[in-house]
Amino acid sequence: MKGEAVCWNDRAGGPVTGNSEEVKVRAYVLINASAGKAIDVARSLQGVTGIQHADAITGEYDVIAQVEAPDVAGIGTIIVDKIQKVDGVFKTVTCLAVR
Question: Which of 35, 44, 46, 54 has the most CB atoms around its CB within 10 Å?
Answer without folding.
Answer: 54
